[in-house]
């Protein structure tokens, strides 16, 4: 006999067991329902693409994290590391077939060979939603409203969406003659929550000088209510300008829709990535800031620059499903282990067809029913159902019994019903379900 | 400026555009609802695994098709090429945490670097469902019933599930002293629909002799109704035996549940794969046999043999979602391009907050509503909504209007409603939707 292989997953990867997967699918489903309610449409793209498509001509930081290899046909290929780059390729390739503004969502796995020390995983799910082909405030606002609605529908604990405008920050940098170093400045400011004020000052002083470093830190530390903060930022940027006006318009829209309480203006939000040009935002959980942003994004003005000469701008956001799941889990009891609400007990194995016939009547009435396939002792079967979190057991008729009457057992109270017809049992469970929902 | 990169996908891969993706997600959702209604639970496993886990010590046919490479840490890894091997690894690894019999489903992408000439793709979705840890006929039957229910729920055109028993075939081979060549014989018989009777005879004659080749072809060509066929097969296998009895029990269960019409017994079904030991089955579309099997599987008695010394048997099936989608598409008109049922027309861009407030009322009432974000001409916006397949347009109040009344436009009849409150508009659409459903 050949020697055994140790069953194990790769470092940074993990299985999803039933209870976790039920929770994950529920969460993704609730988020997706919100996306659909806004008329956003789903797309899908291949997990594997030409490396050149995903990485551009360059390489750098990203490249080290990417799963890249030569396929059997000698092509230089890679697994996608986000959903934005494949989306840019998708839009450039299908531009003639898409209606603009094009509003799409994409929920899918991505892969990064990251350092796994900080509890990061190498395979995770992103939920991206973008509206491209419109530069309007209404498009920005729709993404912000969707974030708020999707996070609320997901059952996210108290959260705040922190909003800023990259253009306004650039105006400020221009005013203090530092625009030439904006990439380094953005990267430094982005690290503020992680490395703290002094370290950021050091980084900035090295790139510029101490005085301008102080000005930048002062700018990103501006506080106050929305109007005070925006006024101070506007002044620092040299007075009224279209970017400040955009933030004012968005604030007006928030007040119109009654969602202003979920948003703050925060000049320290920059999103390190170079491609943002308009609003940028992150979402922190009020009680768990250390978990990081669970939903981030912004406006960009040239999505497809690598593939097309016609610029195409848009605005979009991405929910990190795994991070959000972790946040929700930390506040919750263990979830259900099954979808089944009823277990049909097996008395005699040769009655398997009869048991499935009974179960089918429950299933088509919207009550998921698991049929037990082995005639173990009744008590053992009750215990197995209970362990799975199934509330009800159905004891089928004895073989040969003419009546066809069944018994329902409530596994919480351990009480049996009087003998019932199957229709009466279905009606009883439907009634009970309604009662449970009403008392929630 | 850097030169442009041509936006394209790898050969054998493809994007899913909104209309196709809406159809795909709808199909997967309907299949999944059936799985859940049987109390099957979802799991997920990594796309990437140790190559040794996926390929065993061997290699051979499979290896040539697999995306295999060394990751940045020098590990020998591969993309999963099916969901069965990762499931075997999963069960071996988590055996102590799982309830047995364990009934799971897994809907996920798999990758194979296959020859793409025959319209095959290198990335496709499988929907697997298995029950492991029980050898009972009830477990076999549940999988067969689920196949039938899931395919029906998916809207599959007329289909027949062809059932056989690998053990019965082995008994017959033993009886004609050919059991030693069973792997070659299975592979040859499996090719019958593709290469035809004569070629199979040639293959078998080469492996055995002409007389036994004739006997085997005669066996797999046995026809008649269920009882006649099973009786002939049983006789050829040397008389009554437990495998024939299993098929008889399953037939009884089918009659009990009223689903016998969807199944035939077919001695030519062998499923080339070595690991099947009990029932095996394939599903062909009555009107499109050339599309191949859309749902296949069988019983195996040692799922985890590579990783564990304790044998664990089960029975399972796999729906090829892409193949099924192709079958359903070929009989259908183009589907919807969006989930939105209502388009909120943009009259003035600065009213974006008001428009979203109106749309939110529809969304929370279960009517997906897309807000148009650019104040193009009304006629243009109507045309855009119509092109997306949205039936209703909402013309919002003029800015500054006190009444807050809106107008609904039916984009099919091109008629406008009288001015309505938003609540009245919601009630009207709800009523209309009910009417539409009732008249379907």
Number of strands of chain A: 16
The largest β sheet of chain A comes out as: 8 strands, mixed
Strand content of chain A: 15-25%
Residue stretches of chain A low in confidence (pLDDT < 50, at least 5 long) are none
CATH hierarchy, class of the largest domain in chain A: Alpha Beta
Strand order of the largest sheet of chain A: 1-5-6-11-10-9-7-8
Q: What's the rounded overall pLDDT mean of chain A? A: 91
C-alpha termini separation of chain A: 57 Å
Helix content of chain A: 40-55%
Per CATH, the superfamily of the largest domain in chain A is Bira Bifunctional Protein, Domain 2
Q: What gross morphology of chain A would you assign?
A: elongated
- CATH topology of the largest domain in chain A, anyone? BirA Bifunctional Protein, domain 2
Which second-level CATH architecture of the largest domain in chain A applies? 2-Layer Sandwich
Number of domains of chain A: 3
């Amino acid at each position: 006999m050949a020697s055994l292989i140790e069953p194990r997953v790769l470092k940074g990867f993990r299985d999803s067991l039933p209870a976790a997967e039920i929770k994950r699918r529920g969460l993704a489903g609730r988020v997706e329902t919100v996306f659909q309610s806004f008329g956003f449409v789903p797309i899908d793209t291949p997990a594997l693409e030409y490396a050149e498509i995903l990485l551009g001509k360059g390489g750098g930081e990203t490249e080290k994290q990417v799963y890249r290899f030569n396929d059997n046909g000698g092509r230089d290929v890679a697994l996608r590391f986000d959903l934005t780059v494949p989306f840019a390729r998708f839009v450039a390739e299908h531009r003639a077939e898409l209606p603009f503004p094009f509003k799409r969502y994409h929920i899918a796995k991505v892969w990064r060979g990251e350092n796994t020390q900080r509890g990061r995983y190498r395979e995770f799910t992103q939920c991206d939603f973008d509206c491209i082909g419109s530069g309007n405030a209404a498009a920005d606002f729709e993404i912000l409203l969707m974030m708020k609605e999707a996070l609320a529908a997901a059952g996210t604990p108290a959260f705040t969406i922190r909003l800023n405008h990259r253009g306004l920050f650039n105006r400020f940098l221009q005013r203090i003659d530092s625009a030439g170093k904006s990439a380094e400045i953005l990267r430094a400011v982005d690290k503020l929550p992680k490395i703290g004020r002094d370290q950021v000052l050091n980084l900035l002083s090295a790139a510029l000088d101490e005085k301008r470093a102080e000005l930048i830190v002062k700018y990103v530390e501006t506080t106050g209510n929305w109007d005070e903060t925006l006024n101070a930022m506007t002044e620092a940027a040299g007075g009224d300008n279209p970017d400040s006006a955009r933030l004012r318009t968005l604030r007006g829209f928030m007040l119109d829709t009654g969602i202003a309480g979920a948003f703050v203006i925060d000049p320290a939000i920059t999103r390190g990535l170079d491609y943002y040009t308009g609003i940028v935002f992150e979402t922190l959980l009020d009680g768990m800031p250390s978990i990081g942003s669970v939903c981030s994004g912004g406006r960009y003005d040239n999505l497809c620059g690598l593939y097309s000469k016609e610029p195409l701008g848009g605005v979009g956001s991405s929910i990190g499903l795994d991070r959000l799941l972790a946040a929700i889990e930390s506040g919750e009891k263990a979830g259900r282990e099954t979808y089944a609400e009823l277990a049909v007990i097996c008395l005699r194995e040769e009655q398997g067809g009869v048991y499935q016939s009974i179960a089918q009547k429950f299933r088509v009435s919207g009550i998921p029913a698991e049929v037990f396939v082995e005639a173990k002792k009744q008590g053992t079967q009750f215990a197995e159902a209970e362990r799975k979190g199934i509330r009800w057991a159905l004891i089928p008729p004895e073989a040969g019994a003419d009546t066809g009457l069944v018994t329902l057992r409530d596994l919480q109270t351990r009480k049996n019903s009087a003998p019932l017809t199957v229709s009466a049992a279905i009606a009883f469970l439907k009634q009970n379900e309604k009662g449970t929902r009403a008392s929630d």
